[in-house]
Design brief:
five-stranded antiparallel β-sheet; single chain; 13 helices; alpha+beta; two-stranded antiparallel ribbon
């Protein structure tokens, strides 16, 4: 499985998520379970963030701002970085697909009147009794059970066996439980389900009308109420184009960073304090995602990141090593091009992040690593600068 990368994407918002209330106090010896517990506490009690999630303190040399980057990197020529990314046009089909999703979610179940047989996608009300060797088994009997045909809720052959059955009809389904099943007594067993179809309902979508759209009570990107189908189409086009542009920019930035890391010359060992801090930060980022997926860190790294079993800690270290190279490149380019962050710009971003997290600004400041955020923000500036230069070279 191909391992996923976080490099450029860390510089467009992921770090900010990890710096507040998501394990910024995590020490290297802290377990993934403890990191997740700390994150959950901060989310449920943001007011406690200033004490429970106060950021770990690192020495000055842990931050790239305090290093002489010329001692550590000679950045490759970035005047014409080769980038090949296809832009994505939003089509009428894309807009219609989104409209279809709105209609699907608004669909209702209605009794079938133009036919009397069960079809794929129908919802049937059934009575059933399952027997093994002529004896009913526990959990195999129910009355008035609602089942969507094709949902895969029952063992193989059950739902398929009801297709074509008429309302009021009773059928026997000769089935076999899987060899691996939650109930060991039924594993691989031959059974018979006697099923009666009481009623048949089909999903009916509403018509796409101005009345339907207005009933959604939505507003567009400017806060104006969406009242007509044309309004809705314009709104959908706007957010699809924003999504497409964001994806495009992310790919361009990632290719540029990959190119610079591959072609730049790195020299000298970085301070141990910086290695430790970046390792902590990368661990916090992945722990945050693990928490969002509802799994522990090792499970996230193996199932979603692509780590081999037992190798996830090395993958975290490798990601930390790559990110340190990225930080060095970013600072070197920022110095050469005179790109800086003002206090006003940093303060404004902190206010935006605090509002997003639903806490007051001072609480947010107390619960995050401001110096690391500043690295994040200057990274955004450098990547935007490089992306602008790359426009003429994108194929």
């Amino acid at each position: 499985m191909k391992k996923r990368t976080i490099l450029a994407y860390l510089l467009i918002g992921v770090v900010a998520l990890s710096l507040f209330g998501c394990g910024s106090t995590t020490q290297q010896e802290t377990s993934a379970e403890e990191s997740t517990e700390s994150a959950e506490t901060a989310e449920t009690d943001p007011a406690a963030a200033d004490t429970a999630t106060a950021p770990k303190t690192y020495a000055d040399e842990a931050y790239v701002a305090n290093l002489n980057v010329d001692d550590y990197v000679e950045v490759a020529d970035y005047s014409e970085i080769p980038v090949s990314v296809e832009s994505s046009e939003v089509t009428e089909d894309d807009i219609q697909a989104e409209l279809d999703m709105y209609l699907m979610y608004a669909a209702s179940l209605e009794e079938v009147t133009d036919r009397d047989d069960v079809r794929e996608g129908d919802t049937v009300n059934i009575d059933f009794e399952g027997k093994k060797d002529g004896v009913a088994f526990d959990g195999g009997t129910a009355q008035g059970f609602e089942l969507e045909i094709g949902s895969g809720r029952f063992i193989e052959g059950f739902e398929e066996g009801l297709i074509g059955v008429k309302k009021g009809e009773t059928v026997d389904l000769n089935l076999r439980f899987p060899d691996e099943y939650m109930n060991e007594e039924l594993e691989g067993q031959e059974v018979v389900f006697t099923v009666t179809v009481n009623s048949i309902q089909a999903s009916v979508e509403p018509d796409l009308t101005d009345e339907f759209v207005e009933g959604l009570n939505q507003t567009d990107h400017d806060g104006n109420p969406i009242k007509t189908v044309d309004d809705m189409k314009a709104y959908i086009r706007h957010y699809l184009e924003e999504d497409a542009e964001s994806a495009y920019n992310g790919q361009v930035q990632q290719q540029m960073i990959d190119y610079l890391i591959e072609n730049s010359t790195f020299k000298g060992e970085l301070p141990e304090e910086m290695n430790t801090r970046v390792h902590d930060m990368i661990t916090n980022v992945y722990s945050y995602y693990a928490m969002m997926y509802g799994v522990d860190l090792e499970t996230f790294m193996t199932q979603y990141y692509g780590s081999e079993s037992g190798d996830y800690e090395q993958d975290i270290q490798d990601a930390a090593d790559q990110y340190q190279k990225q930080l060095l490149i970013i600072k070197s380019i920022a110095e050469k091009e005179g790109l800086t962050m003002t206090e006003e710009e940093t303060e404004k971003r902190i206010e935006e992040l605090a509002e997003t997290n639903g806490v007051d600004v001072e609480t947010y400041k107390n619960g995050m690593d401001i110096k690391a955020l500043e690295e994040d923000l200057i990274g955004e500036k450098v990547l935007s600068f490089l992306a602008e230069k790359a426009k003429n070279t994108v194929e």
